Amino acid sequence: SSELTQDPAVSVALGQTVRITCQGDSLRSYYASWYQQKPGQAPVLVIYGKNNRPSGIPDRFSGSSSGNTASLTITGAQAEDEADYYCNSRDSSGNHLGVFGGGTKLTVL
Amino acid sequence: QLQLQESGPGLVKPSETLSLTCTVSGGSISSSSYYWGWIRQPPGKGLEWIGSIYYSGSTYYNPSLKSRVTISVDTSKNQFSLKLSSVTAADTAVYYCARHPTLYYYDSSGYYDYWGQGTLVTVSS
User: Fold this and answer.
1) Chains A, B: CB contacts under 8 A, how many?
2) Of A88, A106, A60, A62, residue with least CA distance to B98
């Protein structure tokens, strides 16, 4: 199996740029996907693959990867971006999509 | 637009079996392009993958839950189901069903693109 590690909490001033990171050995082989979750709601996919956004996700969200670390960057954070963010990837065997990070609580100040 | 909807009892007694069903609408569960998964989230905690199933019945389970989990698919009803046996209070969580594209060895990506709204299951006597 694998593990993905995220910082529990990150804050950003309104309109500034913030990077949320996710570390794990499986990320050397596989891309992370990123999910935004607001209170009482299901997670929403915001970034997948090398740096792809589903339809309807603002272009201020972007993704990158280097070594064992994947990053989600929000450029010009908005108040509505305040949420929990989770990374997800395949396990080390690549057979399933079952590894989640512990989540990062993003506060927009 | 694809929609997933979880259904099942919201309260289960300790030591009993939790049973949930996910009904898929707006698309076919029999597509060769997708797997269907269960993910849970205890109150105030993070996401935990339970397992995934292909329309053919092929399954993958979280090793930590494997001994208690069974996921099955009913293509005639466009549904897939979760059974978790011998539940305890630690199994209290919001349970989500979700879809992800089939994983290929030549493609390094993987992602859950559609999620159900989630259903809270409480384990209590």
Assistant:
1) 79
2) A88
